[in-house]
Amino acid sequence: DKLGIETLQADGKIASDKLVINGVSLEQVSSSIKLDKGVLRLPDLRLRSGGTPIAAAGELRLHDYSFRASLDLRKWNLAVLEKFGAADQSLSFSVGGAFTTSAIVEGKLEPFQVSASGDARAEDVKIDQFEAQGVQFHWKSDGKSLDLQGVKAELYGGKAAGTGVVPIDPALPGKFDLRVEGIETKQLAKD
Questions:
Q1: Structure pTM?
Q2: Which residues neighbour 46 within 8 Å (Cβ) at sequence distance 6 or greater?
Q3: CA–CA distance from 103 to each of 99, 140, 156, 186 (Å)?
Q4: What stretches of the chain show up as alpha helix (H) in DSSP?
């Protein structure tokens, strides 16, 4: 019999007190690890970032380096997410609030490709001086832009709804199409 990726099997656990990836610190990383029929699985990945817990599961197919992972982020500090998005560039504005999402991330390691999507909610959102509550949306990303659909938010005594595209690649344009109703303009002008 020939020894190859498809014939290898492994089963165990991994753990690390601290792991740093692109300047982002992950703490209390642990998971079971299984290798079977050329697929490496982490079925119960748990970690913390910025003090907030993250639950995930994922797999990597070793024959073509494709991967798929599911993530569950609950009440994550948006300032921590800002670090992920701006690992190689600094943002010209501050971000704050609490963010919750379930996400699916898929792609390939060689050549590198990634796409992600999920549904999200955010509370007490603050972008510079701009504030919003009860923000909800479906999102997807190809790594070059973040597409927001079904956006709903409460802000300044009114409501906003619509869609948006947020560029991740600085060479790409952004776009928002929002309907706004009942905004208290005095409060908006103050911020």
A1: 0.75
A2: 28, 29, 30, 31, 53, 54, 55, 56
A3: 12, 9, 29, 37
A4: 78-85, 185-190
Amino acid at 55: A
Report, as ranges of residue numbers, the positions in the chain whose pLDDT lies below 50: 86-88
pLDDT tens digits, residue range 23-39?
A: 778 999 999 999 999 99
The CA dihedral of 85, 90, 93, 94, to the nearest 10 degrees, is 60
Q: Tokens 């379930």 — which residue? A: 102
- Beta bridge partners of residue 124, listed in sequence order: none
What is each CA distance from 151 to 36, 146, 169, in whole angstroms? 41, 13, 22
CA angle 58, 63, 65 (to 5 degrees): 50
Residue 87 pLDDT: 47
Tokens of 26: 């992950």
Which of 95, 175, 164, 180 has its CA nearest to residue 129?
A: 95
